[in-house]
Design a protein that fits this description.
Strand 9, helix 8 and strand 10 form a beta-alpha-beta unit. The protein has twelve helices and 19 strands. By secondary structure, the chain is α/β, with parallel strands linked by helices. Strands 3, 12, 13, 14, 15, 16, 17, 18 and 19 form a nine-stranded mixed β-sheet that branches. An eight-stranded parallel beta barrel has the order 4-5-6-7-8-9-10-11, surrounded by six helices. The chain has a two-stranded antiparallel ribbon with strand order 1-2. The protein is globular. Bound molecules: pyridoxal-5'-phosphate (PLP). The site of pyridoxal-5'-phosphate (PLP) has 17 residues, from helix 10. The site of pyridoxal-5'-phosphate has 17 residues, from helix 10.
């Protein structure tokens, strides 16, 4: 099997397994899919990459080259953007519990917009703005109460969500009072993020409708950011909506709703993460053992929940192939299990695969989002290397962690 003209067996020889492989051209195509279609002549638009989905320097360089903006949620993600000289005016800083250190770093580096989650955070921000004599643009994260139809663990917009404030709640009103009296805080609009791996655009339309209704109460045109969460194809049952349709539908709905309500907005933003990188990513493993139990056939791989926590965390489904046997009869019903000391360390349950032998390579598809970024050192597993491939060339963008690096922090 080749990815963007590079043989994966060659990648195994060169970089060993487990290995994260990204098709660079595919990432670029995805970014342009949004950038070219999420446009309106009624208001400005902005597409942000939600960096938490996959955040390494080379990825953020691609985002920069594409001319996209960036969403960061931590000091680490912010520092990654700084490390590649990302234009800080195009950075949005999210998070429900930003530390003094994080906000200070954002202010010092003139981060374009801080998305404020709650009243206490706004107080901290106001104090730090005073201390450093800096002004700051903010969006307020609203909980618009729209629930997207996806796995309940990834839904964020129920009324008791840890994210955002409810419109006209006491907390919200306190925030607006503070803003009115502040010489530093420049309120620009609202943000909402209704969940992840969403296939139903009506969920976004509903959230957008709520935000637009709220805009009616403001005299200045606001910025609305309707978050990310667009679904991707992990397995055959998943039917994602193409980028151009997602983009055009959202723009269209927004234009119509603005016209109907006779108001204007300054800008509409979206912030896809998963749908930029998921399908461009693969994880390559070596099968080290095969075991039959009374009811199961296991293929043991040399990685597992340490490089892909999603199946254990929320029963995420994946597709896989055995390298060199892609066209062979899938005669076995297999459980693909990792090597961690945890019964839940299963990457795929009951997948039809060809007969394999020890040493075969197994590749899982659509692992580009929340794989590397959620990887852990459980059992002191080493974080795998990340390689980008493009048009027959391979490029190491993050080398494999070493045991020395793991141990050097321990005193
Ligand atoms: C996670 C997140 C995103 C991206 O979600 P995806 O499902 O990866 O597209 C965007 N905005 C916010 C605020 C998020 O928390």
């Amino acid at each position: 099997m080749k990815i963007s003209g590079v043989d994966v067996e060659f990648l195994k020889q060169k970089y060993n397994t487990p290995l994260y492989i990204y098709d660079e051209e595919h990432i670029i195509k995805n970014m342009n899919g949004y950038l070219n279609n999420f446009k309106s002549n009624k208001f400005n638009t902005e597409v942000l990459y939600a960096s938490k989905a996959f955040c390494v320097k080379e990825m953020i360089r691609l985002v920069k080259q594409a001319g996209m903006s960036l969403d960061v949620v931590s000091l680490g993600e912010l520092k990654t953007a700084l490390a590649v000289d990302f234009d800080m005016s195009k950075v949005y800083f999210h998070g429900n519990n930003k530390s003094v250190e994080e906000i200070t770093c954002a202010l010092e580096n003139n981060v374009g917009t801080i998305v404020v989650d709650n009243y206490m955070e706004l107080v901290t921000l106001e104090n730090l703005c005073q201390k450093f004599q800096k002004k700051c643009n903010i969006l307020i994260r609203l909980n618009v109460g729209v629930e997207a139809h996806t796995h309940k663990f990834i839904v964020t917009a129920h009324v008791d969500s840890k994210f955002g404030v409810l419109y006209e709640s006491i907390e919200y009103n306190n925030m607006m009072d503070l803003i009115r009296n502040s010489n530093y805080i420049n309120f620009k609009g609202f943000h909402s993020h209704i969940g992840s791996q969403i296939f139903d655009l009506q969920a976004f339309s509903a959230a957008l409708e709520k935000l637009i209704n709220i805009c009616k109460n403001f005299s200045q045109p606001l910025i609305l950011n309707i978050g990310g969460g667009f679904g991707v194809k992990y397995v055959d049952e998943d039917k994602p909506i193409p980028f151009d349709v997602v983009s055009k539908t959202l723009i269209d709905e927004c234009e119509k709703s603005l016209e109907k309500n006779n108001i204007q907005i300054e800008k509409l933003c979206i912030e896809p993460g998963r749908s930029i990188v998921a399908e461009a990513g693969y994880t390559l493993y070596t099968i080290g053992g095969i075991k039959k139990t009374p009811n199961k056939l296991y293929y043991f791989i040399d990685g597992g929940m340490t490089d892909n926590i999603r199946p254990a965390l929320y029963q995420a489904k994946y597709n896989a192939d055995i390298i060199g046997k892609e066209d062979m009869l899938k005669s076995q019903i297999v459980t693909v299990a990792g090597k961690c000391c945890e019964s839940g360390d299963i990457i795929i349950e009951n997948i039809p695969l060809p007969k394999a032998i020890k040493g075969d390579l197994l590749i899982t598809h659509t692992t580009g989002a929340y794989g590397y970024s959620m990887s852990s050192n459980y059992n002191k597993a080493l974080t795998p290397a990340v390689v980008f491939v493009n048009d027959g060339k391979d490029k190491l963008v993050c080398r494999r962690q070493t045991i020395d690096e793991l141990l050097e922090r321990e005193l």
